């Protein structure tokens, strides 16, 4: 709490008064982190795009969110080490995620109706894959850079990885034998 108060330029007693304790502050940070990514996804206005453009935009947003906010991947890693103990105590979490799943479901349905996306895609599994493509890269960038002797933080490497993530997702979604509406 001392470090947080100092960085925030706030009085530690006020933090305790407002949040109660360190655990409650952590819960507030965790909830805010999830609310922030969901708000960003809503701002993408995916429903106004073609299905392939919507998925392209969602993949890029997710990748960039992890890249621009490396603290988010650290927060998620910490929460996973703790077996999601604090996340389980946040009743707002399911409500934050259900609109995203519904939005992905609509995009998939539209793509199937237009004959470009294949059948049988689970929107939750798809989102997990999209998140994994960005999360793993960002959370392991330093170690992978050493292992492969490449600066994965370099702009060209990041752009290449982002484009590859989009391509992987779209090629997974496209119905066999259908030519993409546009090249990835």
Task: Explain what you see.
This protein is an all-alpha fold. The protein has a single domain (22-173), classed as Orthogonal Bundle (Tetracycline Repressor, domain 2), CATH 1.10.357.10. Helices cover 71% and strands 0% of the residues. It contains nine helices and no strands. It has helices spanning 2-8, 12-19, 22-42, 51-68, 70-81, 93-113, 123-139, 141-148, 155-173. The mean pLDDT is 88.
Short description:
The chain has 184 residues and is an all-alpha fold. It is built from nine helices and no strands.
CATH architecture: Orthogonal Bundle
Given this structure, which CATH class is correct?
Mainly Alpha
Helix content range of the residues, please?
over 70%
Shape: globular
Rg calculated over all Cα atoms: 19 Å
Supply the number of structural domains.
Answer: 1
Alpha-carbon distance between the two ends: 47 Å
* CATH superfamily grouping: Tetracycline Repressor, domain 2
Main sheet properties: none
What structural class do the secondary elements suggest? mainly alpha
Key phrases:
about 180 residues
Outline the secondary-structure elements.
Elements lengths: L1 H7 L3 H8 L2 H21 L8 H18 L1 H12 L11 H21 L9 H17 L1 H8 L6 H19 L11
